[in-house]
Amino acid sequence: MGRQVRVHEVYAGRVVQGAGALALVPDELDRLGARRVLVVAAPSSAAAARELTQALGERHAATFGRPVQHTPVEVTARALEAAREARADALVAIGGGSAIGLAKALAIRTGMPQVAVPTTYAGSEATPVLGETEHGVKTTRRDPALAPGTVVYDPELTLSMPHGLTLTSALNALAHAVEALWDEQASAATRAYAVEAADGVLTALPLVLDDLSDVGARARLQEAAWLAGACLAQARMGLHHQLAHALGGTYGLPHAELHALLLAHVLRYDLPAAPDAAARLTRVAGGDPVAAVAALAARHAGPTTLGALGLPRTALREVAERVAAAPYPNPRPVVADEVEELLLGAW
Ligand code: NAD
């Protein structure tokens, strides 16, 4: 029998969690010895950023308010300039994966410590990974120095997420957990995270969709997203993430919406070849996990098919061949004809 060694690494060193936790960010910066803080904030987080800068007082050095998806290097250069002019010595990112990605890009270039305050369920704050774009080409790097040392989860900051973003972002998180469950090299701890994350999304998301202002359900969903982000950091992602990246990168389709509409199709493809993951997901879903995920995805008022997102039918073959040629682990062999079938179902 071949050697089966598993490695488990944890990235966010410190996680602070709970309604109102935003108010504790200045204390976290004190622990880091920060004296001049650059706040990186998505426009949707402007109010939270103002609350934070007021609390920081003189320690607030500057705010950079225009992060962009997929971390274009020219935006990073402008933010770096702002950090230098402000003589910043620490970073706080408030927002979704785009704001957190920009802070990671600044941290790796300057060595500044970072506090991440996520406002979506994308999970970037839990990973040592950064995707950057230059001249339209996206490259991804992995380095423990990219991971924010401190993460502050405040569910109140997720209350402003509209129905569509809530749904697609939560299914994006669920996809990290699902793929960790069928990665044969995932550690016992990662599997435990993945089960708890899947349970959290499947239990809390329907409650949140019924009442977007339910802070208790939002807190459970955010907790699930944290663990799902840790799964993304620790496990190897398979066909689902390959498809999302191929479609997002080449055809410019939106990150979270792609994850949301693909997940049930990939589950249908892969689960028969992943009996252990299927058993765990069936337990947390209380029935057929494919049906549970499809029912959630169908609650999206926006596009629920690749065709509705604007993907031409002719792209399906090209994407299927590309993901079949790429090397990555997946429970079921990735065969171009079969993936084209899967994509046709999603189209
Ligand atoms: P995002 O950060 O681009 O946010 C999407 C939109 O939602 C933005 O307009 C944003 O302003 C808005 N928004 C964010 N939080 C909100 C809130 N609470 N209320 C209302 N509006 C809000 O999207 P995302 O899905 O969080 O992140 C996607 C980006 O992150 C992509 O670039 C992706 O590649 C990257 N990402 C990286 C990793 C990693 O590990 N490196 C993991 C996940 C995602």
From TrEMBL:
Q: Where in the numbering of this chain does the Alcohol dehydrogenase iron-type/glycerol dehydrogenase GldA domain appear?
A: 14-155
Name the UniProt key words of this record, in alphabetical order: Oxidoreductase
Check the record and name the InterPro entries matching this protein: ADH_Fe/GldA, ADH_Fe_C, Alcohol_dehydrogenase_Fe
Q: What Gene3D superfamilies would the database entry show? A: 3.40.50.1970, Dehydroquinate synthase-like - alpha domain
Taxonomy, superkingdom: Bacteria
UniProt name for this protein: Alcohol dehydrogenase, class IV
Query: What Pfam families does this protein map onto?
Result: ADH_Fe_C (PF25137), Fe-ADH (PF00465)
The record lists the organism as Promicromonospora thailandica
The residue ranges of the Fe-containing alcohol dehydrogenase-like C-terminal domain are 167-345
